[in-house]
């Protein structure tokens, strides 16, 4: 399966995830029971743990894949002719000059820097949500859910189009973890069931992985259109 088809599959499953959440809400009792304190502890704990894993991937992007890679040398031998250096997870060539940003005397991937900031903020808000035992009203819960999905669409669109300003990419990607926080809290408040909140957190991984595949597809598109011969990103399949 080539990269374009893989991307369409991810987009289809991401859309299907939204349908699942709508079904959760449609089958929830009205009014929904409030989540118990221990249930909120479980939701907050799992969410924070996932955010910590996400932060680790910002600094060490491939540490999980190393445990599941069937052929250890496959990635090294994929591009034997590569001589282009990398900075901030991107090759140092003209098409990718807007994909990195300088922060604290270090070159960062703009998307990863945004995700790092957003994950830290999402952890803070989830801890506040748990410690103060907050319970959003139904109207606020539906608003949070809508805002979360709108942010998700905006991040997907910007990843495909890519602004010429790296700071815009940082800002939008910093909102992505917050959209996960909004959606998770909203689903828990609307349905009153911890299992639905856990399932929503798993769906957040799907949405994040879809964003990553959108970025990879855009990288390959830029590389294909570039006149230079190095071709750091090639389409597979």
Helices, by number, come to 7
For the report, how would you describe the main beta sheet? 2 strands, antiparallel
Rg, nearest Å? 19 Å
H/E element order = HHHEEEEHHHH
Class by alpha and beta content: mainly alpha
Low-confidence stretches: 70-81
What distinguishing features does this structure have?
237 residues; mainly alpha; two-stranded antiparallel sheet; 5% strand; elongated
Question: What does it look like?
Answer:
This protein is mostly helical. Helices cover 66% and strands 5% of the residues. It has 7 helices and 4 strands, in the order H-H-H-E-E-E-E-H-H-H-H. The protein has helices spanning 3-27, 37-59, 74-77, 110-131, 138-161, 166-191, 194-225, and strands spanning 86-87, 90-91, 100-103, 106-109. The strands form 2 sheets. Strands 1-2 form a two-stranded antiparallel sheet. A two-stranded antiparallel ribbon has the order 3-4. Helix 2 (37-59) runs parallel beside helix 7 (194-225) and helix 4 (110-131) runs parallel beside helix 6 (166-191). The chain starts with a helix and ends in a 12-residue tail after the last helix. The model is unreliable at 70-81 (pLDDT under 50).
